[in-house]
């Protein structure tokens, strides 16, 4: 199409030179004819008017005026006949072309002069313009249809994108709310974990104190066992001494009995010795009774010592078991403390991650708003594009081919 336009422009420039030259000749020819015709007609008209009007010395002046008027009239008639009427037809054609009315029939061309050439070239230009405009209208209509379809698709995509972004914004807001709750819960749990760690540490210290007390009790019990065992050993030694005293008392009683027998044999000479023997026998019996009582006390003491030793050994066993339990509880407390420390650290990391996630969610939310703004701009642009397509279609529809 552009090649046709360039070709028409070249032809028009060439034709412009030809028409200018031809019109120059025609104007000269018309002027010559007008001059030749105006002189005799002016003389004839002046002679005719002099019969009715006394011109006197103004005859020459009046004749010149008449010649000029006749020259103008003749020029007007000749120009209108040869040029102006044809130019008016061309102007009407140009006016209709200007209004987009290209459904023109060809101008009738009979003249062989430059106006005929101009008319034929005008017909050729109009025909070529009709073909070019038809092609252009077809291409523009196709482009407008494609543009309208693309605009509708773009608008639909923008609306769908806005709906998706709105859902995304709602989802991000929900996620942000949940993250805030997680962060608050993490802080609360972290505070609880720190308090639990503090209480666990205090419990561990109390267990250490209890374990130390249990160790002291164990040492005291061990000392009590040693004392009871020493008491039992001393009781056994006392028993041996009592047995020895009992044997001595029995021997003394036996000697006193023998002495009494010998005193009885001696008669009156042995009465004093008999009294002494009786007293010795009484002392021996008292000694036997005392040693028997002591032996009973020792036996009872040994029995009580055995029971006390049994109780103390049982206490010692229970203390050992208690120490084991306390040690296990201490290990559990220390393990719990370590777990609480790790849990607090993990909760802290979780809270920091939640805060970072909240920050990232805010960034995503801002990006979503930016995308939404771009989508709105796209929707506005697509609307403007659709309006431009309609305007272009309206412009094309103005052409009548």
TrEMBL record:
It comes from the Bacteria. The chain crosses the membrane at residues 21-41, 61-84. CDD domains: HAMP, MCP_signal. PROSITE patterns: CHEMOTAXIS_TRANSDUC_2 (PS50111), HAMP (PS50885). Residues 136-372 form the Methyl-accepting transducer domain. Coiled coil: none annotated. Keywords: Membrane, Transducer, Transmembrane, Transmembrane helix. Residues 81-134 form the HAMP domain. One of its GO terms (cellular component) is membrane. Signal peptide: none annotated. It holds the Pfam family HAMP. GO terms for biological process: signal transduction. Belongs to the methyl-accepting chemotaxis (MCP) protein family. This is Methyl-accepting chemotaxis protein. It comes from Halanaerobacter jeridensis. The lineage of its organism: Bacteria, Bacillati, Bacillota, Clostridia, Halanaerobiales.
């Amino acid at each position: 199409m552009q090649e046709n336009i360039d070709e028409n422009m070249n032809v028009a420039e060439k034709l412009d030179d030809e028409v200018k030259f031809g019109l120059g000749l025609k104007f000269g020819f018309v002027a010559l004819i007008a001059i030749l015709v105006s002189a005799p007609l002016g003389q004839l008209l002046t002679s005719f008017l002099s019969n009715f009007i006394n011109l006197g010395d103004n005859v020459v002046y009046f004749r010149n005026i008449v010649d000029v008027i006749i020259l103008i009239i003749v020029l007007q008639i000749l120009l209108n006949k040869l040029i102006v009427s044809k130019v008016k037809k061309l102007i009407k054609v140009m006016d209709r072309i200007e209004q987009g009315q290209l459904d023109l029939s060809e101008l009738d061309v009979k003249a062989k002069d430059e106006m005929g050439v101009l008319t034929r070239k005008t017909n050729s230009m109009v025909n070529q313009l009709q073909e070019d405009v038809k092609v252009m209208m077809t291409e523009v209509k196709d482009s407008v249809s494609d543009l309208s379809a693309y605009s509708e698709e773009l608008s639909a995509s923008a609306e769908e994108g806005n709906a998706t972004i709105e859902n995304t914004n709602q989802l991000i807001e929900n996620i942000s709310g949940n993250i805030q709750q997680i962060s608050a819960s993490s802080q609360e749990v972290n505070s609880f974990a720190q308090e639990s760690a503090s209480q666990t540490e205090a419990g561990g210290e109390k267990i250490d104190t209890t374990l130390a007390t249990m160790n002291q009790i164990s040492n005291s019990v061990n000392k009590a066992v040693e004392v009871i065992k020493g008491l039992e050993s001393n009781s056994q030694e006392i028993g041996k001494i009592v047995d020895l005293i009992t044997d001595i008392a029995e021997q003394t009683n036996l000697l006193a009995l023998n002495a009494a027998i010998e005193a009885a044999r001696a008669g009156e000479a042995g009465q004093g010795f008999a009294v002494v023997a009786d007293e010795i026998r009484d002392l021996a019996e008292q000694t036997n009774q005392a040693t028997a009582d002591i032996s009973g006390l020792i036996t009872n003491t040994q029995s009580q010592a055995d029971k006390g030793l049994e109780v103390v050994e049982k206490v010692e066993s229970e203390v050992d078991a208690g120490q084991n339990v306390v040690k296990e509880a201490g290990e559990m407390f220390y393990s719990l403390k370590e777990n609480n420390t790790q849990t607090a650290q993990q909760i802290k990391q979780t809270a920091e991650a939640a805060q970072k996630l909240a920050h990232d969610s805010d960034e995503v939310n801002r990006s979503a708003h930016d995308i939404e703004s771009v989508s709105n701009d796209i929707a506005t642009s697509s609307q403007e594009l659709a309006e431009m397509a309609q305007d272009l279609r309206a412009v094309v529809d103005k052409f009548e081919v």
